[in-house]
Design brief:
This protein is mostly helical and about 180 residues long. The protein has one domain. It has a two-stranded antiparallel ribbon with strand order 1-2.
Length: about 180
């Protein structure tokens, strides 16, 4: 058994706290947390990287399905994408009666982002952080100093940010279609 595994088993509190810590740039070096409730210098790199990778994966899948679209003999993935689009479009029509070309794609984007970010919780908790620690070890970084929190929605900055954007979009589109 390696020393890092023995240390993790010997101190479960430290092991859990390590898994609950974000990879933060601009945070307090001792605690790896922002210096205050609102800290504009704190940038959560793990949240950003996982979000960008998930967006890239979905964009690639949608591009691949769009390139190989076959209305006569749809594939299972094409059916899934069409189901998602129709589901979100129906929700938008039920809630937002005015026709707008941007509301549906925005709703689909938000739905897919939240779904994929929460789906990251299905990946085993040590898999991606372990891979990140191994990759950091190649560059001489201690595995204990490598932080990777895989589920972006566990970071309140993401959930509040998305909530504020959706709230702003609701107000904007209501004013646009109904007037002040």
């Amino acid at each position: 058994m390696s020393q890092s595994n023995e240390a993790a088993i010997a101190n479960p509190v430290e092991y859990i706290q390590h898994h609950l810590t974000n990879w933060c740039i601009g945070c307090d070096p001792e605690t790896h947390k922002p210096t205050g409730l609102v800290d504009f210098n704190a940038f959560f790199l793990d949240t950003f990287l996982v979000s960008v990778i998930l967006a890239g994966i979905f964009a690639f899948i949608a591009w691949k399905v769009g390139k190989n679209i076959d209305p006569d003999k749809p594939s299972g993935l094409q059916n899934t994408i069409e189901f998602l689009v129709e589901f979100v479009n129906q929700q938008v029509k039920d809630i937002f009666p005015n026709a707008d070309r941007l509301v549906g794609p925005l709703a689909l984007t938000i739905f897919v982002c939240v779904f994929m970010m929460n789906a990251m919780d299905l990946i085993p908790v040590d898999l991606l952080p372990g891979l990140a620690a191994g990759a950091a070890g190649v560059f001489g970084v201690d595995a204990h100093d490598t932080y990777l929190k895989v589920v972006p929605t566990t970071n309140l900055d993401v959930t509040f940010g998305m909530a504020f954007v959706v709230f702003g979009l609701i107000i904007f589109y209501n004013l646009k279609h109904k007037g002040p």
